[in-house]
Write a structure and sequence with these properties.
Serine Threonine Protein Phosphatase 5, Tetratricopeptide repeat; mainly alpha; 12 helices; single chain
Length: 177
């Protein structure tokens, strides 16, 4: 247990040298605890450690429902998101990751996901619903609203509701200036 705790501490501290030594000496596996090292390093924004871990075949960057890319997208670590998207082992079912990026207002990551054909209308339009409910970011809502996949998949009642809500919010924001 001492090795594992020390290894995790090295990851948290972005200590690439000691993480590398631990892995080379085989004191711990790169996919230790269901790929916790890549999830942790992605959530801390430690791109060099993420890059190192991806060189190990046993690492599954999609483990735990794509937690590594979800954390990186939520926190705005676009370079890590891009690195993970480029890995052939990534599961492209990224509903949660695109929702987190959009809810936090990471336009650059949203654009990157679109380049990799991640569908913002998947999971019953959870992306636009979450942005409206949790962040109410008008600029992101308008951007999402322009995506034809979202408009085409909304039911009539939803269309009316979103049109009304977005227009009301924009009007209120303008009037409050």
């Amino acid at each position: 247990m001492i090795h594992e705790d020390l290894f995790i501490q090295y990851i948290k501290n972005n200590d690439l040298k000691n993480v590398t030594l631990f892995l080379k000496d085989k004191k711990i596996k790169a996919n230790y605890d269901n790929n916790y090292p890549i999830i942790l390093s992605s959530s801390f924004g430690h791109i060099d450690i993420v890059r190192l871990l991806l060189t190990y075949e046993e690492v599954n960057p999609s483990d735990r429902f794509n937690a590594a890319i979800c954390y990186a997208a939520e926190k705005g670590f676009i370079d890590i998101v891009k690195l993970l998207l480029e890995d052939k082992r990534i599961d492209m079912n990224l509903d949660g990751a695109i929702v987190l990026a959009c809810t936090k207002g990471h336009f650059d990551i949203y654009d990157l996901f679109l380049k990799y054909n991640v569908d913002p209308s998947s999971d019953e339009n959870s992306c636009i619903r979450s942005v409206y409910k949790y962040s109410n970011n008008i600029a992101m809502l308008n951007l999402l609203w322009q995506d034809k996949r979202i408009k085409n998949s909304l039911k009539n009642d939803d269309l009316k509701l979103y049109n009304k809500l977005i227009k009301k919010d924009i009007k209120e924001k303008v009037e409050s200036f």
